[in-house]
Amino acid sequence: MTAVFWKELRAYFDTPAAYVVSVVMLLIAGYLFAQPLFLVNQASLSGFVDNAQLLLVFFVPAVAMRLYAEERRSGTIEILSTLPVGDLEVLSAKYLAAMSLLTFMLAGTCFYPATLGLLGRPDWGAVAGAYAGLWLDCAALAAIGLWASTLTRNQIVAFITAFLIGFALFLVGKINILLPPAFAPALGFLGFDAHIETLSRGVADTRDLAYFASLTGFFLYLAYLRISLRRSAP
Amino acid sequence: MISTKGLTKIYGPVRAIDALEFEVRPREVMGFLGPNGAGKTTTLRILSAFVAPTAGTAVVAGRDVVSDNLEARRRIGYLPENNPLYDEMDAAEYLEWTASVRGLRGAGKLKRIRSSVEACGIGSVAGEPIGLLSKGYRQRVGLAAAILHDPPVLLLDEPTSGLDPNQAAEVRGLIGRLKAEKTVLFSTHILSEAQAISDRIIILHRGRIAACGTPQELLAAAGGRRRLSVSVKAEGTDPEAVRKKLESLGALACGDIRAEGGEIRAMVEEAEESGAVDLRERVFQAAVESGWTLLELKRGEASLESAFRELTQ
Questions:
Q1: A81-107 tens-digit pLDDT
Q2: Do residues B234 and B290 touch, judged by C-beta distance below 8 A?
Q3: What pLDDT digit, counting tens, does each position of A3-31 carry?
Q4: Quick one: closest CA in B to A73, which residue?
Q5: DSSP structural state of residue B225
Q6: Do A82 and B48 touch (CB under 8 A)?
Q7: How far apart are CA B81 and CA A228, in angstroms?
Q8: In terms of CA atoms, which chain A residue is nearest residue B11?
Q9: What is the ipTM of this complex?
Q10: Nearest CA distance, B147 vs chain A (angstrom)
């Protein structure tokens, strides 16, 4: 599994994709962080977290789209699937490689709360909670992206599939207030927004952690089913 | 070493292979012959544990490729069709990575990598990115990865496809050398290649085994139809008249016939019922009777090509 993990991680940095995605994301995130900072004159990450959620809906599928789609397009899935390594190990290695890159990208934005520390006195508990929320958001979106990547040999199709699901989960949280009262609580719970908002306040609620864990686990399981069915389906 | 029973694979409405039953003995080289779509690649994909059969069983090196597929994969070296490789890696990195995934470690790993590099003659390109290698070298890198862990069974899907004659000869030489210690099942379109390096050959047609045997056995089976190359000088004679005359001999089935200047060339086949009659004598007599000058009368040996064509048309 370690060998597959390093191969995947290296594959990101062997092409310009990882550098381009990281730099573009950091630039946009920097702009979105700095723009309201001096307007509201508050040492808070709340505006940044809202915007970062939307950024992740775009960028995480871009990171995950190649994981299986590229193997299928180039035919190397036949090599990988006939080596003595289990499907679950390969899936874990690919997922962990994507999460490593995303963690690295997210870590690059730590510059912004550090700036807040210099300018004022931010609530560090809330900052840590916001980052935990964004990281869990990445984990769920990466699982969706990985699953979408198992469906097709076309990376763009994988990207669009993952983006649409991610965007729906983002949107349903944002437009919760416009939904019929009968559905609002259930649909609100399905969206990312409420869960990240709670974490951003520095509150570690097990319901939010369970939400992200179950969403991530569900899509990873679907991806595993998809891969193992190809081998075992008669 | 390899055995299949009732091996069947159905893709939607297509029955890619149908109840295949065959065995490959230890240290035997078995050639898989067949036209496109005959089921060669599907069979190799099942044997390599890449896809599961719809029905039937396949055992490779003592392991069932479905129920014990991880262990089966440890014992198989596989070169897929079109030889997909990670183009961004260089050849040495790719072999190093494959060795790691296969669980090779330390000095044993280095020794196996060196041995594979040497056997496949890729030392000079080991540091080159795979994406920049010629097709011949790519094929050799794929082969080196297939033999890296010293597997008892090698499955090679068209190992010489797309190679120039020299490269193909080198790959055939390598398979010939591996034959001493490994069981090899390879597919090919090249009949002479199958004839030259196989101990036995399976001819597949529409997912079924059309024939199985040693090259000599298949040749003997095809031997009922010897070919005669006939060339006569018959100026002013219509080639069709020559065809009719040859066919009127009864024991001959006519093939291509063409006129070149005053010369008429025909390729005729001995009919199955001709028995022990020497057809050259009949053709000679027919030429004399018709007033043709016989320029050439040559009997060709039965070839695997004729057996292949007969079985797959």
A1: 999 999 999 999 999 999 999 999 888
A2: yes
A3: 899 998 888 888 787 788 888 888 888 88
A4: B84
A5: S
A6: yes
A7: 22
A8: A234
A9: 0.81
A10: 12
